[in-house]
Structures are given as C-alpha cells and as structure tokens.
## 1
Amino acid sequence: MTLLYSEVEEELRASVRDLLADRCGAAAVLRRVESGAPYDMDLWKTLSREIGVAGLLVPEEYGGAGASAREVAVVLEELGRAAAPLPFLTSSVLATVALLRAGEGELIRELASGETTAALAVSLAASPYRPPRETVTVTGEGILDGEVRAVAGADVADVLLVPVGTALYRVRAADARIEVVPSLDLTRPVATVTFSGVFAGEAIGRFEARRVLGFGAGLLASEQLGVAEWCLSTTLAYIKERRQFARPVGSFQAIKHRMADLWLDVVRARAAARNAADLLATDSGTSDGQERARDRESAVAVAASWCSEVAVRVAEEGVQLHGGIGMTWEHPLHLYLKRAKSTEVALGTPGAHRDALATLADLPAPV
C-alpha cells in the first residue's frame, strides 16, 4: 500500500489539469453560472472521449480503461480545484458503480464511451448508512410513479437509474419530468425528478445502496481535497501580494499561524482521501473478507467526515483573508465555498460518518 501518486496518476492529472486550465477557468465558470446553464457538456465530451475519464472505472471488457478508484480520485481532485461544472461524479462514479454492481453491461459500454450520461435517481443528501427513502413505487407491469428530490446530474442525463427498494430500473430521462430547483452550489444543480406512469420494464439488477453510496462518499472526499487545495494556494498567493502598513499581509504572525493550521488540515485531508481511494481500489465487488470490508468502510468514514469539514474551513478562511474582494461575485471564492458547503452534507453528513466509524471501531457513543 502506498499513498503516493504513481507516474500514471500524475500523467492523468497533468492532462486533466491542462484541459481545465484552458477551457474551465474561473471566468468561464462564472459566465456559465450566470447563463443559467452551468454544465459544460462540450468540455465533458472532450474529457470523456479524448482523455477517457468517463470509463476509468469500467473494465476493459466493456470498453473502459480498467482503472481503479485511485485514478478516479485524481480526476476528482482536479475537478474540485477547478469547481468544474461537469457530471463526472454523478455519471462516471455513482451511476457507473451502480450499474457495475447490477451487472448491466450494455449501458456500461455507452457510459464508458462518453456517448451517454446517466444519473442515479437518489437524493444527493442520501446517507450510505441507511436505505434511501422510498418515494417511487413500481407496479407488476414495470410502471414507475413518484418523485425523487435533490437529484444531482439529472438535468443533463440521458438515462436515469431509479432504485425501488433493492431493485434498480433504467428509465429514459426524457420520459420523466425533471425540474431544476434552487441550490447552494451553483456549479452542481439539483432537480426534482417526477415519474408519472413511466414504463421501466423489468429491473436491470440489484441496487446495493450502502456499497454504491459509500463508494461515492469515499471518492467525494478527493473532490473536497481539491477544493481545499485551491482555496489554500489562492489565499497564500493573495496574502503575499496584499500589502498593509507597507508590509505584505502574510508577514503578520497571526496570519502565518492561521495559514499553518490550514496547511496542516489540508495535508491530513490528503492522507485521508488517498487512503480511502487506495482501499476502494481493492474493492473487487465480491465478498472479500469481513476485515477488509471493515477497513474500507472505516477509511471512507474518516475521509468523508474529515475532508468535508476541512474544505468548508479552508474556503471560509479564504474568504476572510481575502478581505473585501473575497465577498464579491467577481471573485470565484464563493463558488468554492458553496461547493464545499453543499458537499459537506452530500452522501452523508460528517456526523453520520463519525457515528458509523464509532460503530465500526466498536467505540459507541456514551448513552
């Protein structure tokens, strides 16, 4: 086991970072947010087809790259650093993992090629530690009725994967009513998805909620790490240039102490996120031993609880240390603060992950 980045991972990072720097700068993201259509689907096609990020988790037999969670984590770090409005987490992680667990090969091929984008019709706030609320019903003829709120990526998806109990159904997005609702994160809209007599046919497989959502939570920590790293480096650059009393603001001892604390938080977050990604990379999808599964779930809980709070803390400090400019719409810091705050409650709150960790470590809270 190593938490260091491999040569392949660094090459993947360089390719993704260069493309995002060229086509997904802060000014471009702000323009898209103001336009009301934040997702950059042209950029997504380039990333998914030319660099192949859409099929990283997909085995080679289905036309994917046959990579692991480690490579996916590197991509998520870079997307977090750019606050990129792309459906990678929703389509290439959550939906893809759900399909791999269900064993649906045809749609997996389409997702791996970048031809199709999918979304898992589960609330972004759903916790891995308890089954999602059942708000959709299915008849014996395979007709779906009901609605799911706060679904991320539904507005740009071609296919919706709808869990009903432990069964997973495939529905064309065009057959459902998708209404985007106001959300804190302007770069990742959420929508209310309504099914009214929608024909889904037979279930395509079994939906393993805890495994799928837990996998997503563990990798979301890498995106939160990227958000924190960008906020830290941007704030550091600013306090070196901003002068007060004929001195750089960063030369004051109080500011140095605050930055040192943030740096330590980010370093710890990197270790936690890398550990989770490394253990998720060994998840074979089969029963691989109770001890290994416990280690993996513990690593996910640690990374999800720690990285989510670190991202918020570093973003908040960044706004404070930027002074007045940090409070303006023109500066992109607010995008990162909103991304950090919204992902703090995505796929399980920090408290939920800590409760799960206490149970896994056999250290229940006092009664």
## 2
Amino acid sequence: MKRLEQRIAIVTGAGQGIGRAIARGFAREGAGVVIADVNEESARTVKDEIEAGGGRALAMRTDVSNEISVQTMAKKSVEEFGKIDILVNNAGIFPTSSVEEMSEEDWDRVIGTNLVGAFLCAKAVVPKFLEQGSGRIISLTSGRAFQGAKHGAHYAASKAGIIGFSKSLALELAPHGITVNVICPGITDTAQPRGHQTEEEMYAQGKRIPLGRIGQPEDLVGPAIFLASGAAAFVTGQTILVNGGSIMW
C-alpha cells in the first residue's frame, strides 16, 4: 500500500525546485496534491505532470504573504478534495543585501513570504485539522537559520523564525494528534542558489560536504514523506537536517 494513500496535501511553492519534487513524490505515494504557487503557469505544469502519472492534483495561484489568498487556497482545497491532511510550507524567497543597504521594505517582503507565509498557511489549515483530529504540518527552513547568511540577514531571520514558530505550534497542537516538524536542507541544486553562485562555486561547495556533493530536490522527498506518513506519528517539534553532513546538530 502506498504510504500516503487517501491523504490530501497542500505544498506551497510547488511550481519548481524542492516544492515540485515533494508534490510529485507525495502523488506517487497516493496523495491528492494542491500545487500552491505564486506562479500559476508553473503550478499548472506540475499539476499536469502529476495527472500524467495517474495522480490527482489541483493548481492554485497563491501568494502566501496574503491572508485572503491563503484562506481562498485552503477553502478551495477542501471544496475539491473534501479535506486536508498535510501542509508543506515550502514557499520562500532569498534576495541578497547587506544590512546597511537593506530597506525596511526588503526586510518585510522576505519575512512576509518566508515566515508570515508559514504562519498564515498553518492558521488556514488548523481549523480543519482540529475538526478531523489529525494533521501534519511540515515547514522548510535552511542551514542559514543556524549559521547566519552574509547579505541575507532577513532570510536567516525568517528561517530561524520558522523553527521557533514550529516548536511553539507543535506544543499547541500535540494534544489534538497534530504534528508539526521542520526539514532543513543544505545547499540544494535549485534556481535559488544558482541565482547567486556560479557552477564552479556550487561544485566547490559540494566537495566540502562530507557526502561529497550538493543536494538534489529529490533528496528532500523521502524525509517529507516520512514526516507526512503514519510512520512519524510520534515525531513532533523536530528539525531534521538533510544536508549531506554539512551541518551536524
């Protein structure tokens, strides 16, 4: 039997990269998947990929920093599938700027997407989870939460905030059988790092990782499926580092 049979999952930022890989992986395990992405065309492409493989999917243009957009996404997900079992908070942005040159608008935009977005999405699904007496919330953070980020203080702050928020939410929801966990990828071969580093820099960084390479989006799928499945029923408030050994915690 597939591990996520009859489950319904929302994956934010699922139009590309890690989110796309997790959405496709969930579908392979039997879940119906809501592809929530600010880029509607990308969301529809992933929906088509899932359906071509025999899965069920709904594409939703969603701005996770906007509460109305998030609430609409949650409402339509329930209308389409009848329930929600899993939320994966993956949507995020990583512009670069020194603190000295960073505008308050830049700070607010990153915190609004990465951290407030996780809060708004959790807030939108929790009532359904409480009604059902079950649910899984999985949020993606970053090694920058532990190490900091030169020219990325807003990003590091948002990702550290996700860990604190998730632990707090895990305490609130544990009595209701709802788990809340975090996955922390290392550098992963997606558009985000490629927008800031050359191929040679990424290769050199990979050689410094104990397992000898940078991560691939598929490396995050197994941990996400585990946390979403019944196998992780007694796991909550945890941060799982998936980074080839680059940070050992």
## 3
Amino acid sequence: MPNIREVAKLSSVSIATVSRVLNGSENVSSETRRRVLKAVKELNYRPSFSFREKNSTLFNTIGVLIPDIRGYHYSDMVMAIDEYAYSKDFNVMLALPKWEVDVEQQALDQYFRRKVDGVILGELFGGGELIKRFERSGVPIVVIDFVVDEINFDVVNVDNVGGGFLAIKHLYENGHRKILFIPGPEISPAAIDRERGIRRFLNRVSPKSEVEVYFSGTRGYNSEEAWEGVKSHLEEYGLNFTAVFAVNDWTAIGAIDALKDEGIKLPEEVSIVGFDDAPFAQYTNPRLTTIMQPRVEMGTVAAQLLIERIAEKHQRLPKNVILPTKIVERESVRDISK
C-alpha cells in the first residue's frame, strides 16, 4: 500500500504540500496540484481518515447526495447506484438533505472527512462552493438529474426538452389543438426544460395560431397543486381545452381528479399525458399515457462513470450524458382527428 511519502517523492513536493492538496486547500498552485493528483492516481494512493479516526479506515466508498427518496423517482436511481456499486465492490453512503442547505453542508463535510472515493450529486441547492474542496483535492464527482452551468465533471441527465416535445407532439398528432399545461416549479431545471420542449414543438407548427397551450394557474410537482390549477382554470375559462399535459405523473393524478369532480369524462372529453412513467401509471383510470424517464439507467450510468473516474490513471474530459425519453401509450389519449 503506497504512503504519503511516496506521493510526495513522485510529485517532488513536501508531505505537507501533499496533505494540503488532499484536504482541498486553496494555498496550492494549479501546477503543484496537478502533479500531486497525478502521483496519487499513478500510485493508487488512498488517504485514510483523520488521525482521530485512523483505526476506522473505510475504502471503496462513494457518497450519494439525493434530496429525498420518497416516491419512486430518486429511489429508483439510488437502488440502481447501489446495485452497480455493490457489483464493483464499492459501498454507498447515502445522505438525504431534503432541500436544506445546512444538511447538504453537513453531509458533504462528513463525506470529505471520511475521504470517500467519489460523490454522486442528485441536487445541490447550496451552490458550487460546497463542492470546491472535492474538486481541489481530486475527488471525482458525478452530477445526476440536474443541470449545471459549467461542465467540470461528469453529468447524467434525461432529455427533458425532448420529452416535453414528445408529449405535445403526441397530443397534436391525435388532433388536439387546445391544450392545458400543468407546469412544474420555476426552480426546477427539469420542469423548465419540459416547457422548452413545448415551445420547440410550437415553433415548428405552421400556422403557429393553429395550436394554443394554456398554463394552469399553479406550479408544482404535487397532485394538490394540479387539482387546484385545473379547478381554477375551469372556473375562470370553462372547458376551453381538449387535452392536458401534466409536468409529471403526480400532477396528472391531481388533474384527473379535478376533471372527474367536474363531471368531465376521460378520455372521451379530455385526454391527458403525464411525464415519468411512474409505477402507478398503468393502474389509473384511464390508464395513463406518459413520457418514460429511464431512472434505473440514470443511476447505473452515474455509478459506472464515477467508478471509472476513480479507477482511471489519466484524466479525461468530462462526459455529459443525456438519456432519451420515449412515450408509453396507454388509454388516456383519444384521437379526435377522425
């Protein structure tokens, strides 16, 4: 097992300098940092815990930071990450900050102190400063299911723009020209990208006045918000649409309940498309047509990229992986073009 002295010798620096690099210190030149991290890779050196915990060394561990695992979306990803990591003899440390910045900070502090081999980030509300130490000390990071401004590390996302495009296109091809859209939160990059997919399709329709997409008055990913949005739209405008596109399957459930409360039949009077292909989508009434997200594949690819990055001897350019969506047709869309 190589030690820190060998790293210092190979990189032609002091042991103290190696320690500063591995602890994410800013007081190291970029060239020195590069030499030290290169030596760490070549020697496959793995630092142990701090002196206080040196008898509790834990190797082959990745940290996973996910907002929460309620429902199915993130839980499917975490299960896939864990399964792939286990197959490669890696342990998984899971933190669930529930969108609280202080908890994110505490979890990342724990990961850094325990010298995890790499980190998968499922969301980061505290901003990029929280992970600067990992970048400076050469700890690999993979981002999953959220958009970053600068691609400094591997990223795995689903094609939300393409998914939004597919949903509206499917409704259009089935004759629908007046569509109510239930949008997601403005702070959610995925929700905004699904709106972009709608606009991309509308820009291709000629004449543009042929299709109208109305936005419900509420935003969110929950059934209650969708229920309120549909109810308020019907109260203000009446039934001026023949189809609904819901930003996810939970909001589709809320929309279905609101429409049924008003005595509106689905899909005879109104069709609906969701997004996610949740496990319950095939058990709704009518069974829900929806856009499938490859959640398991996202988790597997993220774990694969991270473990490859941990094992590699030489740096490569970051990868930006965009996994495709597809439409799953069931019973909730009626063709009114005939």
## 4
Amino acid sequence: MHQTHELADLNLLTTFRHLLATGSVTATADRMRLSQPAVSRALGRLRTALQDPLFVRDRGGLVPTPRALALQPELEALLTRLDDLLATGAGFDPSTSRRTFVVATSDYSASVLMRPLLQRLGREAPGVTVRVVQTAPEAEAALQQGMWDFLWAPQRSMSQAVVWTKLFDETFSFVLREGHPLAGKPLTLERYLSIQQIALSPEGRPGNPLDETLQRMGHQRQLVAHVPTFAVVPSLIAHSDLGAVLPRRIIEVHGKPWRLVSRALPFPVHGFTLKQAWHERHRHDDGHAWFRQLVVDLCR
C-alpha cells in the first residue's frame, strides 16, 4: 500500500520523467523550479517505492538503471495521456504552455522540419517541447495509446481513426561535390551510370524504387555502400567522388554547407508525399489542434 500511495504522487512521477530526460538533479530542479534537496528527496522516495536505485552516478551525471529504462515508455505514455486529459476543454495558450508533443518520424522529416518548427516555437511557445522518436512497425497502436502525438511519414494502411494530413510533395535529385570531374557537365544516363554511388536503405535491405526503375530499363548503378539514414550522406559525398540520389529538401538543407552540386536525374523517378498522422482521440484537444496546424502552416 505504501508503494502504491507513493507512486500516486503526480509530482513524483514528473520528477522521475525529468530525471530520465536530463540525467541531472540540478537540471531537474531548474526545470521544475524546485530546490536540489527537494529533487533528491523525491528521488529517494522513488527508489523506496520501486525498490531499485533507478540511477547511478557517473562522470557524465546520473545513468538510469535497466529498471528505470524499462519504466520510461510506460511513464511517458501515462503522463502524456494525463496531459491530454487536462488540456482537453481547458483552452490552450501556446505562450504559457509547458506541454510536450511526441513526434515519430525518420531522420529525413526531422532534418527538414525541426529547424523551422523550433524557430517558430521559440517565438510563439517557448515552453513547449518536441520529443522526436524513431518510427516503429506498431505505429497505429502508438498513436491510439497516446505514446505518440504525431507520425510524419508517407501514408500507410491504418484504421479510419487515424487522420492523415498532407504536408508536402517531395522529389529526388542527384548530388556530387563541387569540383567533381563530372559536376560541370550535363548528367546523361551514361555519366550517371559511370559514377559510384551511396544508396539509402532505411531498413538495411538493398533495393528501392530507383533501382527497380533502372532494372526495367536494363541498367544497374554502381553501389559501394548502403546507409540507413540521410544524415551521413552529405559528408560522405563532400569528401569523395561518390554520388547519391537525395530528396530535394535534404539537398536544400545540406547542399550549401557541404558544397554539393545538384543535378536532375536523366530518367523519371517517382517522389513521395509526406503526411502528418494523428488519432481521432485528439479531435477536441485544443493544444493538439494548435500544434498540428502549426506544422501544416510551416510546410505551406
């Protein structure tokens, strides 16, 4: 009974959440506007209630134990659902809100959208936090259960309770470094096939629609590496004579800093449409509606 009573303390659970996020008693105290001794006492109560150290000290701060890490997803889901419950019908003021929105997405969407989103939040909602997590096969369940607020991805098959809103259409181009022997010449099919390339394989498996298109044309590109994320590609291209096919918005973000040259592909390649998915359970949540409209406005 004592353990159940302790964990019913919302402030205690919130302290646990901040300790997991910061790995620091000092940073948690600053976030919660509490004294460091108050946070330390809360940690002691958590350790007693859960019968686990929860955190051990290291040179970099507090390191969570396996028990603490195992509790983190359930804790986030519980507190997120509570945030939703308190926010629904109570009005929403972005200028004073301290709400956290959880967005599941790939590194592509995060690279393209997070910078303008954080700039906008800094002006209009400085207390709002965005927590980006990787997508997972159980996406619909994560949206339904409140573990995620949003999913940014091309549309996939889900129930009618999941609402999809278009953000933008994306196309692909070919990139080389400035100074590449072929960078100043028109990109013909023959020249494209002569360049060794890096392929994007988000799921770690060779093959994608681009390769299927080439195969139907009776051609095959020279691939020297498969990488799972877009983020690593610009630096690899910038320091080699390799090339890569990248989404246009990734090139806009990384092309100039890495001194990349973009060229239209010499054959047709289908792009994709990025959408924002959310669950009907948030239909009457003013804060959720504000955030999802903010993202749509940014993409326009």
